[in-house]
Amino acid sequence: MLKFLFATLILFSISQIAFCRSMDTVYYHGNYAIKIDSIQIEGNKITDPDVITRELTFGVGDTLTPKIAEYNSNRIYSLGIFTWVSLIPYRVGNENFLLIFVSESWYIYPIPFLEFQDKDWKKISYGLDFVVRNFRGENETLRAIAAFGYDPKLILEYNRPYIIRSQEIYLDMEVYYQNAKNKSENAFNLYGKDFNQKFIGGYIDLGKRFNLFNRFDLQVGYDYVENPVFIKGISASNNRIDRQYSLGASYSYDTRDLTQFPAVGTYANASYFFEGLGLNDINYQIANIDLRKYFVIGDDLRFKFRLATRMTFGKLVPYYNYSYFGYDERIRGYFNKEMEGNNLYFGSVEFNYPLIKDLNINFDFVPIIPKSLLTYRFAVYAELFSDTGTVTNWGQPLSIRHLYSGYGTGLIFLVLPYNLLRLEYAFNDLGQPQFILGLGLSF
User: Given this model, what pLDDT does residue 4 score?
Assistant: First the structure.
């Protein structure tokens, strides 16, 4: 079935290019190293070809090998707007051509959803997630989220990969409203009971892509935080309501092949944000460093590790901006343990091995549903992992004996470009077991 689908795909692609109909067309397979004389793109019904070619690490006149082709195929797939990407090199006469064939995913998603806040299956939100991807064929994204239940919220997002194409300048914007439950034990002890905080705000992020792998961002933002009463620490200012402006910068280096599930590459990010800027008696800072590295050992065994830290410091850091474990960041083995402090430190290593590797599934025989919603990239991986981390307050030393650690095994189910499911069984350093059902990539 797969051979038949692949052969059909190639034949369809060839039929679109008149000069490929000649009898002397030769397709490259196995080991090759060829100089590319021309690049054609097929299957992009609405996508601007530049969206695809700007992700390539090579161009006309450069050498293409199977390894380079696989890496670049995953880079195109990482855009998240295609269900099928295939790079097909061939020769006609004395010239080498590369056909990039893509199949576009469905781009409008008015989807009802259930969401598990902070990766906790007990904190269920529900609502509507309306997304328009690849808007105008330039990989722009428009998104509106209305969530009810736990921590109700409304979010409006807009992303444009380039507002000045020649300079590779891009734009991100977001405005939001959220009525969120307090997650700080320190704040709970001060107030004496559970309480909610109202968050309203937004940001504008203007960035520059210097080349394929390096980006720099500047961000300005505003946050309105309403607390039930004024208590120093629960509020950052001298009032019940915090009105704080922010200014920050970040740098990222990203050579990952497939961002949804990387096999090779490096991701490094460093950011520094000034919160309050001294206005309304609010003045503190937040720094983040995140390093991730991915390798392939042999043909199929994958190895990756991550080191990360989040540090807060300044005149007075409010509890709602402390660094936390047990929410977005979790230690498997201590998955539900909540910890808070000024500084967070985290490390993780993981091995993955494919049980079912990159199977393209097509259900286009199903009636009514658009075909672009019926094509998936499916895979199953076995994993071994180990996590460790802790939080500290200023003046407290970082010590190995204060680390919380866990390890375990599991299965990863990929249904790309849509999502990823993890079934994991972990043990903490006391030998206590824990079953974890997670959505999305660990890192």
Answer: 44
Residue ending a domain, among 56, 78, 104, is 104
Separation of alpha carbons 161 and 174, rounded Å: 15
> CB 224: neighbour CB atoms within 10 A?
14
The number of residues making up the chain comes to 443
What are the φ/ψ torsions at residue 10 (nearest 5 degrees)?
-60, -45
Classify residue 331 as exposed, middle or buried by CB count within 10 Å of its CB (0-12, 13-18, 19+): buried
153 has pLDDT over 70: yes
Alpha-helix residue ranges (DSSP H) falling in 220-315: none
Helix (H, G, I), strand (E, B) or coil at 15: helix
* Strands 375-392, 419-428: pairing kind: unpaired
CA-based radius of gyration for the chain: 24
pLDDT 10s digits, 202-235? 999 999 999 999 999 999 999 999 999 999 999 9
Count the neighbouring beta carbons within 10 Å of the beta carbon of residue 8.
Answer: 10
pLDDT at residue 365, rounded to an integer: 66
Of 46, 80, 104, which one is at a domain's C-terminal end?
A: 104
Domain count, the chain: 2
Domain contains 388 = yes
| Domain residue limits at 381 | 322-443
pTM for the predicted model, two decimal places: 0.84
DSSP labels, 416-431: ETTEEEEEEEEEETT-
CA 405 to chain centre: 24
21 within a domain of the structure (yes/no): yes
Strands 433-439 and 169-181: unpaired
Contacts 24+ apart (CB under 8 A), 129-137: 132/107, 132/108, 133/80, 133/81, 133/105, 133/107, 133/108, 133/109, 134/46, 134/47, 134/81, 134/104, 134/107, 135/107, 137/44, 137/46, 137/47, 137/48, 137/51
Both structure tokens of 318? 């409010």
Q: What DSSP letter does each residue of 81-123 carry, written as one string? A: -EEEEEEEEEEETTEEEEEEEEEEPP-EEEEEEEEEGGG-TTS
